[in-house]
Design brief:
906 residues, alpha+beta, Nucleotidyltransferase, domain 5, 4 domains, 5-stranded mixed sheet, 35 helices, RNA-directed DNA polymerase, RNA-directed DNA polymerase activity, transferase, nucleic acid binding, mitochondrion
C-alpha cells in the first residue's frame, strides 16, 4: 500500500552522467544500457584475473559434497517463492503443478550437473532489470542503480540446492570466519549487532574505549573475478566437482538489459556474480573470506572484523582513541593491499568512523590512511550527537540508540499513514487483517534489532537496581504503536491508549521489547557452538552486558539444539510428504482416518510388533507435569507396557517423543523380537510423527536422534532363521477414536503425570518457548490493573492474547468499542469536545449514552423474535464484557439496524 502510494508511474529513467565526461548527459536508451553495462557489470581489474585452470596453491579436497538426493531436489523447487521468471517464462507454480511428471527428469538433471560439475548454458542467460537503490540518491549516477538478474526458475532450483549445501558445510567445517555472516543458517544481522554491542560494553567495563570503521566494497557481486574465485575455492579444500560447477556457473554468462520498456542486445559478462541467484551470496562470502582473517597488524585481534555480505566493520579497543585510529588505519591499508591483489576496490567515500566512549573529555580524532595511488584520505568521526548507520542500526557514541529509535519510528509511521486509508469506524478492511498488517509491516520496522540494543528498564549495578534511562525511547515507541493500532481498529481518535493495546492485543512497548528479549534468549539454545553469541556467553566470568542480561532470562542448563546435526542431503521429506508417509490424509474425517488405520492394522503380519505410544500433560498446582506411556502387542497379545514421569519442565511434544523412543526400546528388548519381522510405532501426535520421519532439528533432539539410531539397529537384532531383517514403521493413529492400544497408552501417560520422576529432566526447548510466551502474557496482565480504564474494570475486561472480537464485522465492532470505551457517538462525548453539529438524541427522544441501546424502547420493539429471549436474559456486562455477549450484541445490531435507522449518527 505504501509502495503504491509512492509510485511515480512508468516513466523513463532520467538522463545519466558518465564519469569520464561529467558535463555530458546520456538520454538515449541504447547509450544508457551501454553505460550501465560498462559501470556496473565490468571490473577494470579483469585484465589481472588468472585463468580458471591456472596452477596455484591447492588444499587437499577434504570438504564433503555427496550425491544429490530426491528430497533435496524437491525441497529446492518447492521452497522457492513466486518470483519473476527468466527468459524461458517458466514460473515456480508451473514446476509445482508438473512435478509428478517431471520429478525424475529434474532429479537426473540436477544430479548429473553436480556430479559432473556443469551448469547448463540455458540457465546462464539472464535478463537484467535496472532498479534504483533505496534512499535519496543522485539518479543521474549509474551506481545509484542495481542490476537484478531474472534467471530461469529451474536453474535457480539447482543454484538453491548448491547454496544450501555450501552454507551448511561452510559453518560446520569452519570455512569462514566466525563473524562473517550472510546467507548462513541461524546467523542474522541482529546477532552480529548484539556481538558488537557486547564487545563495546565489555571494553567500557575494562576501562577501554572502542572505535568502529565501516568499509564498503565497490560493486560487490558484480566485481568478482571468476579465476580468482575458482582458485579461492580450491585453496579452501572444496571438492573438484563443485569447483568445476562453480567455474561453469561463473564463466560464459550472457545477459540482456531491459530498461525503460526496451530490451537490449545480448552481450557477454566477463566477471561478477548475478544478483538474484540463490548461490551468489555464499560464493561472494567465500571469495572475500581472507579479508576477515588478515592478521599481520595484530594476529590476536580475532574479533576485530565483522561482516554481513559486503557490509564490513572493523573495531579497535584500547585506552586511547588515537591508538584506535592508528590501528584501524593500518588494518584499512592492509585490506586495500589485499583487495588490489584480488581485484576488489573499497569505496573510500562511503567509509565512516565512530568512537564509543563515555568519557566527556575524549576528543573525536579522524583516521588518515594512505591510498594505493599515494594520496591520503581522511575519514572524520561522526559528531557526538550524530550516529553511524550499520546493518540498519544507528550507533551513537554512548549506545543510547536514541537516533535509531527516532529514525525507525519515522519509517514505521510512513507505513501507518499508508494503512490509514484502508478503513475507519464505519467501513474498511476486516479488522483482524489490518491488525496482521500492523504486526507484519509496522512492528518489525519499529522494533528492528531490539533484541540487540534494548537494555531493559533497569539493571543490577553494584548490588543495587539502576535505571537505564529509557523512558524517552519507550514514549516514542508507544506513540508510534498507538498510531498503528488506531489505523487498524475502528475506534475514535480520542480512545485511550490502554484500550487500544488491550483490544489489539499489542501491549505497551516495554512489554513488547521484553518479549523480544525472551524470544531471543530461547533462540540462543538453537545456535551452534561456534556462533559468536554462544562463544561470548561461554566466557565465564564476564562483565555485565545487554547480551548477558538477555541470556540470563532463562535457565542456562536447559536443552541446547544442534542446528547442524543433519546435512541437507540427509534430511528426509518435507512436512507435507511426511504426513502422507505416516498415513495422514488431510481431506478425510477423523472417523475415516480411524477406519483406514484399523484396516491397515488388520493387514499386518501376525509376527509384527505393534507399539502404541502417547504423551500427556496435566496441571499440578501452579505447574504442569508431563508423562509418557507405551504398550506393545504381537499377534493381538500384549507383550509389554510401561510409563515414565517426566516432571514439570517437559511439554506434551517431548513426552510423545520420549514415549516413542521407550516403546521402540522395549520392543527391541522383548524376548519375542527375534521372532518378529517389523515394528510399527503408532502415536496420535501429528507433529511428533512427522518429526520422526523428517529428523529436522528441534525440541528433544537427543530423543529423536536416539530413536533414529535404534530404528537402524532393528535390522541387526538377533532373530530366527525364518524371519526377515524388517524395519521400523511409523504411523499416525487418530486419537480418542476407540482404538484400544491408543487408549491404553493414553491412560498410562496420564497416570505417569501424577508420579514424581527420580531426577528432574533438563528443560526442553518446547518448555522454554511455552514459558517465554507465558511470561509475556503475564507481564501485560500484571500491568493491566494500573492502566485499565474504569469502564473496562467495571465490565471485567482483561487482556486476551487473541481477542475473538477482532473477527466481527468492522462497522459493528466499532460500535462495540465505542460502547466499551465511552468514546463514540454519545451526547456526553460530543458536549465534552464541543461538537456543534452532532445529533445528541436518539429517535426515541432519549440522550445517546454508551448503554442506550439496552434501554431504547424502539430498539427492543425492533428486536426479532429469535433474539428476544436471549437479549432479555443478557445483561450489559455480558453484552459488552464477554466474547459471547459481543457476538450476540453484533447479531442484534445487524438484525435491528439500530445505529442506521433507530439511533443514527446524523
Amino acid at each position: 500500500m505504501v509502495g503504491w502510494q509512492k509510485a511515480k508511474g512508468s516513466f523513463q529513467t532520467p538522463p545519466l552522467r558518465d564519469g569520464s565526461n561529467p558535463t555530458a548527459l546520456i538520454s538515449q536508451p541504447k547509450e544508457k544500457r551501454d553505460l550501465f553495462a560498462r559501470v556496473l557489470l565490468r571490473n577494470a581489474a579483469i585484465s589481472t584475473d588468472i585463468p580458471a585452470e591456472s596452477p596455484g596453491p591447492r588444499l587437499e579436497a577434504n570438504l564433503p559434497f555427496p550425491r544429490v538426493t530426491k528430497d533435496e531436489v524437491q525441497t529446492s523447487i518447492f521452497s522457492a517463492r513466486s518470483t519473476t521468471p527468466g527468459s524461458d517464462g517458466i514460473t515456480t507454480a508451473v514446476l509445482k503443478t508438473a512435478w509428478p511428471v517431471i520429478e525424475d527428469i529434474v532429479f537426473r538433471l540436477y544430479s548429473g550437473c553436480v556430479c559432473e560439475g556443469w551448469h547448463p548454458t540455458c540457465f546462464k542467460e539472464a535478463i537484467l532489470v535496472i532498479l534504483p537503490k533505496p534512499g535519496k540518491r543522485d539518479r543521474a549516477l549509474p551506481r545509484s542503480y542495481r542490476p537484478i538478474a531474472l534467471l530461469s526458475v529451474l536453474g535457480k532450483g539447482l543454484e538453491r540446492l548448491v547454496a544450501r549445501r555450501l552454507a551448511w558445510i561452510t559453518v560446520k567445517f569452519q570455512v569462514l570466519h566466525d563473524q562473517q555472516f550472510g546467507a548462513l543458517p541461524l546467523r542474522s544481522c541482529s546477532d552480529l549487532i548484539a556481538a558488537a554491542i557486547h564487545d563495546i560494553e565489555c571494553a567500557w567495563q575494562r576501562g577501554r574505549v572502542t572505535s568502529m570503521l565501516t568499509l564498503d566494497i565497490k560493486g560487490a557481486f558484480d566485481a568478482v573475478l571468476p579465476g580468482r574465485l575458482i582458485r579461492r575455492l580450491r585453496c579452501q579444500g572444496w571438492p573438484e566437482n563443485l569447483v568445476r560447477w562453480v567455474s561453469s556457473f561463473v564463466l560464459g554468462r550472457r545477459a540482456r538489459i531491459r530498461l525503460d520498456g526496451e530490451m537490449g542486445d545480448v552481450f557477454d559478462l566477463e566477471c561478477g556474480l548475478p544478483q538474484g541467484s540463490p548461490v551468489s551470496p555464499i560464493l561472494f562470502m567465500l571469495h572475500i573470506e581472507p579479508l576477515f582473517k588478515l592478521g599481520t597488524v595484530h594476529p590476536g585481534r580475532k574479533r576485530s572484523r565483522f561482516g554481513y555480505a559486503d557490509d564490513i566493520a572493523i573495531m579497535a579497543s584500547s585506552t586511547s582513541l588515537e591508538d584506535n585510529c592508528a590501528l584501524l588505519a593500518k588494518e584499512w591499508e592492509e585490506a586495500q593491499e589485499w583487495g588490489a591483489l584480488e581485484g576488489i576496490t573499497f569505496d573510500t567515500d562511503k567509509s565512516e568512523l565512530i568512537h564509543f566512549t563515555k568519557r566527556p573529555k575524549d576528543r573525536n580524532p579522524p583516521i588518515t590512511v594512505r591510498l594505493l595511488d599515494g594520496r591520503q584520505h581522511t575519514v572524520q568521526a561522526v559528531n557526538q550527537g550524530a550516529s553511524l548507520r550499520w546493518l540498519g542500526v544507528h550507533f551513537d557514541r554512548r549506545l543510547t540508540f536514541k537516533n535509531h529509535v527516532k529514525g525507525h519510528c519515522a519509517k514505521a509511521c510512513q507505513v501507518v499513514n499508508g494503512l490509514r486509508g484502508l478503513g475507519n469506524t464505519a467501513w474498511g478492511a476486516p479488522t483482524h487483517l489490518l491488525r496482521r498488517a500492523i504486526t507484519s509491516c509496522v512492528l518489525p520496522i519499529q522494533y528492528y534489532a531490539s533484541e540487540a540494543w534494548w537494555p531493559g528498564r533497569n539493571r543490577i549495578k553494584n548490588g543495587h537496581i539502576a535505571s537505564n534511562g529509557v523512558n524517552g525511547l519507550l514514549n516514542q515507541l508507544d506513540i508510534t504503536q498507538a498510531k498503528a493500532i488506531r489505523a487498524a481498529l475502528p475506534v475514535y481518535r480520542t480512545t485511550p491508549v490502554s484500550i487500544l493495546q488491550r483490544e489489539a492485543a499489542l501491549p505497551p512497548a516495554e512489554v513488547m521489547l521484553d518479549a523480544k528479549l525472551h524470544k531471543a534468549s530461547v533462540r540462543i539454545h538453537r545456535l551452534d557452538d561456534r556462533h559468536p553469541l554462544r562463544t561470548r556467553l561461554g566466557e565465564r566470568p564476564g562483565p555485565d552486558s545487554r547480551l548477558r542480561r538477555m541470556a540470563s532470562l532463562i535457565e542456562r542448563h536447559a536443552e541446547y539444539i544442534d542446528p547442524l546435526e543433519l546435512p541437507p542431503w540427509e534430511r528426509s521429506a518435507d512436512w507435507h510428504t511426511a504426513l502422507s508417509m505416516v498415513g495422514y490424509e488431510p481431506r478425510k474425517t477423523k472417523d475415516e482416518l480411524a477406519t483406514a488405520f484399523t484396516d491397515r492394522l488388520g493387514a499386518l503380519s501376525k509376527r509384527d510388533i505393534v507399539v502404541y505410544t502417547d504423551g500427556s500433560q496435566m496441571v499440578d498446582g501452579s505447574r504442569t507435569a508431563a508423562g509418557a506411556g507405551w504398550v506393545g502387542y504381537q499377534a493381538t497379545r500384549q507383550i509389554f507396557r510401561g510409563s515414565e514421569p517426566l516432571g514439570h519442565q517437559t511439554e506434551v511434544f517431548d513426552a510423545e517423543a520420549q514415549a516413542a523412543f521407550r516403546g521402540l526400546l522395549e520392543a527391541m528388548r522383548s524376548p519375542t523380537a527375534r521372532m518378529a519381522d517389523n515394528v510399527h510405532i503408532c502415536l496420535d501426535n501429528l507433529a511428533v510423527t512427522a518429526r520422526l520421519v523428517t529428523r529436522s532439528p528441534g525440541s528433544s533432539q537427543a530423543r529423536f536422534r536416539a530413536f533414529s539410531e535404534l530404528s537402524v539397529s532393528w535390522a541387526q537384532r538377533g532373530r530366527t532363521s525364518w524371519t526377515r531383517p524388517g524395519r521400523v514403521y511409523i504411523w499416525w493413529c487418530p486419537g480418542h477414536t476407540g482404538i484400544a492400544g491408543n487408549e491404553e497408552a493414553d491412560a498410562l501417560a496420564k497416570e505417569a503425570c501424577r508420579q514424581i520422576p527420580e531426577s528432574q529432566p533438563q528443560p526442553t526447548l518446547a518448555h522454554l518457548k511455552r514459558e517465554s510466551r507465558a511470561a509475556d502474557l503475564q507481564a501485560f496482565a500484571r500491568r493491566w490493573p494500573s492502566i485499565c480504564p474504569r469502564q473496562y474494570a467495571d465490565l471485567g475486561i482483561s487482556p486476551h492474547p487473541k481477542p475473538p472480537e477482532l473477527r466481527l464485522p468492522r462497522h459493528l465492532l466499532g460500535r462495540l468499542y465505542a460502547a466499551r470505551s465511552h468514546h463514540g457517538d454519545f451526547a456526553a462525548y460530543h458536549e465534552r469536545f464541543a461538537h456543534q453539529d452532532a445529533l445528541l438524541h436518539c429517535s426515541c427522544g432519549r440522550r445517546k449514552t454508551p448503554v442506550h441501546f439496552y434501554f431504547c424502547k424502539r430498539g427492543r420493539k425492533a428486536t426479532p423474535r429469535h433474539l428476544r429471549r436471549r437479549m432479555a436474559k443478557a445483561s450489559i456486562d455480558f453484552l459488552l464484557g464477554t466474547t459471547q455477549g459481543a457476538s450476540l450484541l453484533c447479531e442484534w445490531m445487524e438484525a435491528t439496524n439500530f445505529f442506521s435507522e433507530i439511533c443514527p449518527s446524523h
